[in-house]
Amino acid sequence: MNSFKKSRRHFLKAGGALAAGAVIAPTRRGWGAGPAATPQATKLEQLSYADVQLLDGPMLEQFRQNHALFLNLNEDSLQKPFRPNELVRAVETASESSRRSVAAAP
After folding, report:
1. Which of 26, 44, 52, 82 could form a disulfide with 32 if both were Cys (CB 3.0 to 4.6 A apart)?
2. At residue 36, does pLDDT exceed 70?
3. What distance in Å separates the CA atoms of residue 56 and residue 59, rounded to the nearest whole number?
4. Burial (Cβ within 10 Å: 0-12, 13-18, ≥19) of residue 88
5. pLDDT tier at 26 (50, 70, 90 boundaries)?
């Protein structure tokens, strides 16, 4: 059998072992420069929403579109799945009658 012909399983095992060795090797003594040469990571801190300012660009435009979308959502349709069936019919009837009275107003 040809020694160069290997299966995918063998290839994945060898690749996994190589990746694991690359991760473990620098942390062991005698491999790499050691902990003294590793740079210190900067600690991340959580920001409040007031600390963030969007400049003109695609992110600000997306924020404005999302804001307008949420402000124009119909509250009754959002609450409908959480209401019992009797209450759903009552709210629908009330909203229809209020639409009729607004349309009939001079």
Report:
1. 26
2. no
3. 8
4. middle
5. low
pTM of the model: 0.37
Place of tokens 């060795």: 21
Q: For the chain, what is the radius of gyration of the CA atoms?
A: 31
- In angstroms, rounded to a whole number, what is the distance separating the alpha carbons of residues 106 and 48? 48
What's the Cα-to-Cα distance from 79 to each of 10, 72, 76, rounded to whole Å? 56, 15, 5
Q: What's the full length of the chain, in residues?
A: 106
- Amino acid code (one letter) for 100: R
Output the CA torsion sign for 94, 99, 102, 105.
negative
Which letter, b or e, does each residue of 44-56 get, where b requires 16 or more Cβ atoms within 10 Å of its Cβ? eeeeeeeeeeeee
Q: Is the pLDDT of residue 94 over 70?
A: yes
